Amino acid sequence: MKVLSVASECAPLIKTGGLADVVGALPAALTQQGVQMRTLLPGYPAVMAALVDPETVLGFDDLFGGPAKVLASRIAGLDLLVIDAPHLYARPGNPYLGPDGRDWPDNPERFAALSWVGAHIAAKGAGGWQPQVLHGHDWQAGFATEYLRQMHAGHVRSVLTIHNIAFNGPADPGRLHSLRLDPGRFHSEGFEFWGAISALKAGLMGADALTTVSPSYAAELMTPEFGMGLEGVMRHRRASLHGILNGIDEDAWNPATDPAITPYSKPAGKTAAKTALQAEMGLPQAEGPLCVIVSRMTHQKGLDLVLETLPTLLEQGGQLALLGSGDADLERAFRAVGEDNPNVAVRIGYDEGFSHRLIAGGDAILVPSRFEPCGLTQLYGLRYGTVPVVALTGGLADTVINASPAALAQNVATGIQFAPVTAGALRNALVRLGTLYKDTETWSRLQTNAMAQPVGWALSAKAYAELYAGLTAS
Length: 474
What we know:
It is built from 19 helices and 18 strands. It has helices spanning 18-31, 45-50, 86-89, 107-124, 144-150, 199-206, 215-220, 224-227, 231-236, 270-281, 303-315, 328-340, 352-361, 377-383, 394-399, 405-409, 423-438, 440-452, 458-473, and strands at residues 2-6, 36-42, 55-60, 68-75, 78-84, 133-137, 157-162, 170-171, 192-193, 196-198, 209-212, 241-243, 290-297, 319-326, 344-348, 364-367, 387-391, 416-418. The longest helix has 18 residues, at 107-124. The two termini are 14 Å apart. The model has no long low-confidence stretch (mean pLDDT 96).
C-alpha cells in the first residue's frame, strides 16, 4: 500500500504544534502495517537546509505565481517530497506567520499550491512513484480533493484528518481564479462557507474518508459547541468519520533513554529529574506537587483558568513551572506572577529539550483545555509518570482514566479529570491533586499506572492501515 501524506509541517524538520509530531511519527508506525508513506512538505528554509542529496522528481513552470520543482530526499527516517518554490516558501517566520506575527497575505495560495502538488502526484505520480491514497492534514491540504476532481483522478482514494476544526482556511471569493478553483463548486455542497471559500470545507465535503484524532472529538465535532459552524457538515459526513487516537513517538519520548534528562524507568527515578528542574528554574524545595505546563498560550488551552486558580495550588505547598508562548496578555500575566512568587517559574518561548526536562521533573501536568482534539502533552505526561490533570473533553477524556474512588480501588486510575471547564472545577481538581499527592502510596500507584498506559502508535497505525485498505478495496 502506497500513501502520500500532505501536510504543512513535520517533526523534526518544521514544527509549530502537535500536528508536526503526528505527521512525523505516523510513517514509521505505518511501516509495521505494510504501508509505504511519503510525506509532501513545503520547502521552507529550515526544510530546504535539511535536505540530503535531493533528487528532482517533478517540475512546474507556474506553481501559483512562479516556477517550482519537487525534490525527493530521505531525512530522519522519513521519505520526503519537498516543494522547492522560493516565491511561496523562502521566507522568514514560521510556516504561517511573518516576523510581524501576522498571517502571510498569500497563505491561501501558498497552501493551495501544497494541495495542487499533492493532487498532481496522486493523479500522475512523481519519480516513478504513485500512491493509491492521498492523506491530507487540516485545511492546508483541504483543496487536494477539489484538484483531484479537476484532474479526473477518480482512481485515487482520499483521506482528510481534522487536527483542529477551529482553523478552516478562509479566503475571499475573489480568489477563485488565483486558487485554480471551479466557480461552479462555490456553493453549500462544495467549498462555500458563510460566503467565503473554505479550504477545510472543501476537504470535508470531498474526501472519501474523514478522520479526527480521538473518538470523543469525533462526536464533539457534530455539536454546535465544538463544530465551529461546520457541525452540519460533520453530521452530513458522519458515516465517513472515524475517530482514531493520536500516539507519540515512544523512542523520542522515553524516560529510560531520554538524553535531555537523568534517565529513569520507575516513578522513584523522577526525584532526580524534579530536583534538577527546580534548580534550573530557580524554584525552592516544596511540600506540595510541582505542576508543569507545556502549551501554546491561547484561550483554547484554558490558561486563564490556571491564573485564576493558582492560589489554590500554592496554598497547598504546590509549585508551577510553565513553558509556552502565544497570547500577549497571557504571557504578561504569567510573567508577572512568576516575578511575584518564588514558587512560580515561567519561560516564554519553546525549547524541545527543556520541554522534556519539564515533563520529566514535574509531579503533575496541567491540561485545562476548553477543547482538545487529542492532545499530546498528557500522553507525554503519562509516559514520564507525570500525572495529568485534564479537562473532560476530546482526546483528554479518551486517554486519561480519572482517579475516581472506583478507579483507585481497582488500581486503574492514571490522572485527574474535571468538568465543566471552569475555574471552580479546576480548583476542585487541584485540591484533589494535593490530597492524592500527600498519600504517597496512592500517588506512587497513579504514577506507575500512568507509565504503563499504552501511548504509542501501534493501535492507531493499524486502524489507519485498515481504513486505507477498505478505501482501496471499494
